[in-house]
Design goal:
7% strand; four-stranded antiparallel beta sheet; Serine Threonine Protein Phosphatase 5, Tetratricopeptide repeat; C8orf32 fold; 58% helix; alpha+beta; 3 domains
Length: 348
């Protein structure tokens, strides 16, 4: 299936009529009153501080985080729950209503190497906001700092891209509920909005695979690989598809590609190193994290884990050297402060 074939509507999905008129950034009267009560005219820097303070006081700074709840700004404001895309929609809507210049930003968080649920890709992983200020550096606003690490690649994206993510996530949530007709319409709409996101095609392929439309599933996975040849989910799903069809040669070829991209990804070895550390296998942790560092020298998380393993083995001087590297490579302020405190404690 190519971009030109998006108008294709499988017969079994034609009767489904999910809601398709969501307004991601709609601001209702109660939201406007909230802003009027808490914000006044002033410089963008002052407005941003007041907005964040007001959101925190109302409980909007520490909402009930749920990965599987994708909401509009309006729904997030009233429900006080959602995933990071929901929270980001809310902040973008309120900030723009207050006159601030803000943009969505995608953070390329490394893939989860445990396989996930049937190869699905949740597309809120990870999104935050850049606030443009007049006389200072741009300000990052992120409602899920636990996931965000500053050395990940980032890029500003359009509102259309964010809307595409929104409908893709609705499609995945419908898939998980086995509402396949609704899932099709949501994913189809997401692709119509922004067809060049490789993971959208993966999710469409998973849907087709689950309803037995294997030829269409194969085409969707292949389209994903045209956009991103190293997409792990597309490669894995194609390998599984070909095994099911008895085409062992093709299946093995894609399995080898999965292995290649996995083994050349530093975060794969990092995930294994974390598992080894949690199990108390500190020497194995060092072996695995050394592979990560060879592949990406400037990731502070790698050096921090190496330092923890060295400390657990009683090699305190080497542990301090690794912690110093972690501090050097960290960019985000709170992360650097954390490492600075640990270095001070280790030196004392």
């Amino acid at each position: 299936m190519s971009k030109a074939e998006l108008m294709f509507i499988p017969e079994q999905f034609a009767a489904a009529k999910p809601r398709m008129d969501y307004q991601l950034l709609y601001v209702d009267q109660e939201m406007r009153e909230f802003l009027s009560k808490n914000l006044s005219d002033g410089a963008p820097e002052a407005k941003l501080r007041k907005l964040l303070r007001a959101m925190s006081k109302r409980g909007l700074g520490h909402l009930n985080y749920n990965l599987d709840l994708t909401y509009t700004a309006q729904d997030t404001f009233h429900k006080l729950e959602g995933n990071c895309l929901s929270f980001t929609n809310l902040f973008v809507a309120l900030a723009r209503e207050a006159g601030l210049k803000v943009f969505y930003q995608m953070v390329e968080v490394p893939p989860n190497w445990d396989g996930g649920e049937g190869g699905l890709v949740i597309l809120n992983n990870h999104v935050n906001v850049i606030v443009k200020l007049r006389y200072k550096m741009d300000r990052l606003v992120d409602f899920n700092l636990f996931e965000y690490q500053d050395n990940y690649t980032t890029k500003a994206v359009s509102d259309e891209y964010a809307e595409s993510m929104f409908y893709s996530n609705l499609g995945v949530e419908a898939l998980q509920r086995k509402e396949y007709g609704n899932a099709f319409w949501y994913l189809n709409h997401a692709l119509a909005l922004y067809p060049d996101i490789d993971n959208l095609w993966v999710n469409l392929g998973v849907l087709f695979s689950r309803v037995g439309m294997t030829d269409h599933a194969e085409s969707a996975y292949l389209q994903s690989l045209l956009l991103e040849r190293g997409n792990k989910s597309a490669l894995s799903n194609l390998a599984g598809l070909y095994y099911t069809q008895g085409d062992v040669e093709k299946a093995e070829a894609y399995k080898k590609m999965v292995s290649y991209y996995r083994n050349t990804n530093p975060y794969y070895h990092f995930s294994l190193a974390n598992i080894a550390f949690d199990q108390g296998n500190y020497q194995e942790t060092l072996t695995l994290i050394s592979r990560s560092i060879r592949l990406k020298q400037v990731e502070h998380q790698f050096h921090y884990l190496k330092g923890k393993a060295l400390k657990a083995l009683g090699k305190d001087k080497l542990a301090i050297k690794s912690l110093e590297k972690a501090h050097r490579y960290a960019v985000y302020y709170t992360t650097r402060e954390k490492y600075a405190r640990e270095l001070e404690a280790a030196a004392g």
